[in-house]
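Note to self: user wants both folds in one dump. Writing first protein now.
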Amino acid sequence: MKGLLKYLKDYKVESVLGPLFKMLEASFELFVPLVVASMIDIGIRNQDTGYILKMAGVLVLLAAIGLACSLTAQFFAAKAAVGFSTALRNALFAHINSLSYHEQDKIGTATLITRMTSDVNQVQSGLNLTLRLLLRSPFIVFGAMVMAFTVDTKAAMVFTVAIPALSVVVFGIMAVSMPLYKKVQRQLDQVTRSARENLTGVRVIRAFSRQKNEMEHFEASNDQLVKVQVFVGKISALMNPVTYVIINLAIVAVVWISGKQVDAGRITQGETVALVNYMSQILVELIKMANLIVSISKALACANRISRVFEEKTSIEDPVSFAHKEDVGASSETGSGLQKNTSEIGEKRSKICFSHVSFAYNGSKEDSLTDISFQAEKGQTIGIIGGTGSGKTTLVNLIPRFYDVREGSILLDGRDVRTWPLRELREKFGVVPQKAVLFKGSLRENMKWGKADASDEEIYQALAIAQARDFVEAKGKGLKLFIEQGGKNLSGGQRQRLTIARALVRKPEILIMDDSASALDFATDARLRKAIREETRDMTVFLVSQRVATVRGADQIIVLDDGKIAGMGTHRQLLDGCQIYREICQSQLSEKEVQ
């Protein structure tokens, strides 16, 4: 939590003024019982209407001043809390965007969204309450006790017993209930997860007629949540009756003791009423304090979860100074491999060169890729094929440095990709991922993700190559065509063609198409490959696919099997020399097409 306080540095004044005005309000509130006592002892006792009205005016004045102080405190506290959460959310978003795929895979998308939204909101709420009430409630409690002693020492001794007793009850119940509230939150997460899975997988559930089973599973989770909530609710429900019993007993004691003092002429009836009012104020503030501590505890828990995200550091080192390290070879095995491989093959100046590359995902016991070596020249089309889980996507994700290799090196234009500034490196790539992702907005806005200053002519040219221009023009809105979030108003094939066009708009040196035509029919796929081949002659293209028809025309085909290269060459060479490739061909093509 301490690390997050730096986002409050621009609101130091507000963070001081908020509690200050709240304590000022509390000070005026402490004078109210004395004014009421004066009304009773002087105005009512002497039946002095003018004095009563005068004291009523004082009460109204105290109320007005207290209200003004309260509103001012609320303004400053809200300004500080909202400003803090805005700065925190911006910093958290920027930090998440700086993390590599490794860290994002480890933390999880759902978790990151929760940290960005509900956790930040909870911290904001906790900070707001802290600035307004953390000092006010103890100030009222101890202030009321001090004021009681100024009225009558003997009667005020009841306060020294009642306050500790109330504190034990309030904070004792909190100590028992707060761990249970955490259990409630965990069970609520289970219910939320169940609901989310059912909503996102509703088609699969209906396809397998599993509605009844899922409803029973949800009801079981929900029933467990209810049981825990009822149990903790019963414990929390003890707070009000027990505290009211204590406070009423304390009031009885105050009235009894002060009554004797009144009879003895030591204090007045009005002062007795003041003592009772001070006791009531203490009760209210202790209840507020209990609720405040619960809120602060939740906020601290959320703040700790946010801090853990900030503690995650990207495994992709900023390469600005990487190439200038004096002893890269001694720094790590990866660094050693960098120097060795650069000296051995740096002079070949291939567009892309893999040299004995091995890679393992974070936490994995086995490599996903093992000893991968090949070269891709400028203008070549490289086809990558293999079974599910063979490492095709992993291989192409290493080239733009979405992940770093464990061993070996990848050279771009004779230079290790780890020595390129990330921005400069990735501007050379056009990446079309497996899952077609489009953003809410116009078609023109989506296309300009590839190139911010792209002209309409450039966009239409990219759409034509991607075989998307025809259906765009058929919709009659041109580049103003509105795209729903995720492209939900488009078919799967249309989304894929638009993501291909988006990558082509920037005219990259290297185009990576990761199984990005899987939703296209064979005729459209063929036209797409022909257009890319004709229009991007100087572009190095990586085609990842499980379709033989997609990769068979590539200049070089890499066959992956269990993270290793099982064969490499042209279609004809692999048919003759790679059994795995031949089996893939036979499973997809007729005997005549295979030959």
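First done. Writing the second protein, which came from a different request thread.
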Amino acid sequence: MRFILCFLALLAGGNAAAEKLTLDRIHADPSLSGPGVRSLKVSPDGARVTFLRGRDDNQFQLDLWEYNLKDKSTHRLVDSKILVPDENLSDAEKARRERARTASLKGILSYSWSPDGKQLLVPIAGNLYLIDVSKPDAARMVASGNVLDPKISPKGRYVSFVRDQNLFVIDLSNNKERQLTTDGKGTIHNGEAEFVAQEEMGQTSGYYWAPDDSAIAYKRYDDAPVPVVKRFEIYADRTDVIEQRYPAAGDPNVLVQLKIVSPVSGEIRNVDLGAEQDIYLVRADWSANGKALLFQRQSRDQKKLELVSVDAATLAQRVLITETSPTWVSIFDDLRFLGNDQGFIWPSERSGRKHLYLYDLNGKLLHPISSGEWGIDKLLAVDEKNGRVFVQSNRDAVIDSQTYALKLDGSGADKPTRITEGDGWHDSSFSRNGEVFVDTWSDPDTPPQVSIRRPDGKMIGWLEHNELNANHPYGKYKDAHLRTEYGTLKAGDGQTLYYSMIKPSGFSPVKKYPVYLSTYGGPHAQHVARKWGNFFDQYMAQQGFVVWRLDNRGSFRRERAFTDANYLNLGKVEIEDQLTGIEWLGKQSYVDAKRIGVFGWSYGGFMTLRLLAQASDKIAMGVSVAPVTDWALYDTHYTEQFMSTPKANAAGYVSAGVYSHLDGLKSPLLLMHGMADDNVLFTNTTRMIDALVSRNVRFELMTYPGGKHGIAGRAPQRHVYGNIEAFFKKNLMPDAK
């Protein structure tokens, strides 16, 4: 019997003598995932695939690479260090990168193709370069001085960008720069997305080219109504007093306008957004023929979203589609216009799951493109010639991401054809016409592999095979790699909850282990996914912890009944579901129910505090990083989507916050926060400190000078996770050496 148990332990836990991960190696070069790729794009002429890749000596310094589809060669196209040896970023660019979650990256973070596939537009460190792909070493600087959001116009005549809160164009036929707006200063911004649009609406741009280069629609906003929050940004050698216009829940938002400007004459025309000014302008697009500007207008309570069509010549307008919800209407990026005035594709969750619908240009529903008890993550491409629509979905497994083909005519709407192979996680990038796509696939045991494929899924070739062999950066740790198990539990209302678990090295079913419970728990995020995993999870399992994740109700990529469950009372059902998981864990023979600890960041930090406050009898300790402690302190669009306003839902805000539950917090707590966080303001933690002190609750605190919300940077990240490990070991493994 002992032999059988030892054999089973070897199978489950791997080779105990294999080399294990270290925190130093996790936070060193080269990346343990291998040569990763970002921002995959197929050139408009279909000749090459371009992508961004970190350097061997610095995975955070990105260069631009290409894969030639004709000769199947791969080489670096643009060396970022040659282009700009030393970056000096403006405050605006630093803030934009924080919004985009790219604050730790340097070099080339974005690029765009000219419509003929012969040139690339590359911004770096506030400067803008135009690069001929046939002569990439002869990069030409076309603009400088804190350039933001550069684009090549659809027909390729212009380069556009935002500088100093105004919109500019460069006519490439004569290289002349023209300033299209002049009133951008102080609280007035042109061509930009406001703070909450960037942070919460996925809005990366504030201006939109007409397809024939004849006009630009742009957002103009005035943030004068938004309250000024004075906060300290504490750095190692100084303290800055920042006056930030931060719209907390219930506060006034920016005043927004939509305008159209001619790049030739400079004439500006105003688009009527309606009588109600307290709205969100969440999207703007042009029809394929350029005759209509379409914008999406969301009510302040987010229960109504309208698609409005504006005649580009007369500015006459009409509402094409109105979406409503008793909770909130989600925002998507899946609006697509078909050629030859054939109509447009529109996403909607009206059925309870996200599906696609085909409309004519008058707003008449023609037919559903997809339907059934599954939902679409995003629309990837439309092949009008062959009548196909490509989408990404978790139809086959909630924890997976696959690519599927649907028929544009709506036949077989409930039976899409899966074109990606292998269970796990696929991210696909298609060419403009859908004739080729790049598939990035991984699973918990396979680092991301990138292949180029035809639309039926057949491989053309490897862009990055990334085999996990002896020469791979992770190769020496492969034998110590631990398997991730997946399963389901039932929530209180019967809905299915997905979990993942990694059992520790040398696992023995007759031993009892402590638990490292990692949580996020909030909307717009999925924590349990079958893909190449979190190295820290592997590390903690190798240190002797059972590593546990569970996606509670409210989490992302599920049906609306699942995501809407937390409406008006954030934290309630999320805590119930996490406790369901903790109760299940405590019943397992190999879990020590008295040694379960929880860690979370941001919404996960909020979850950690709520779990400790409501269940210190079940949770032995917690680490909370950058937590929201009072939802009245967080921004308008995110918070009001789930909680309404503090005035309309006063009791809900009290119940959702941490403070009304805080008397129950008895377990050890480590609280960490960046001291320059402009997203979850540091005030959340200073208020928590004061509340804990007033209750005479002892806790540990670690703050990071200059740290933003992500506490970016190799040394700070190494320190954060070193603290997490140490706190877990001190409280759950006091005898560990």
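Dump finished. Worth passing along: The chain has 13 helices and 44 strands.
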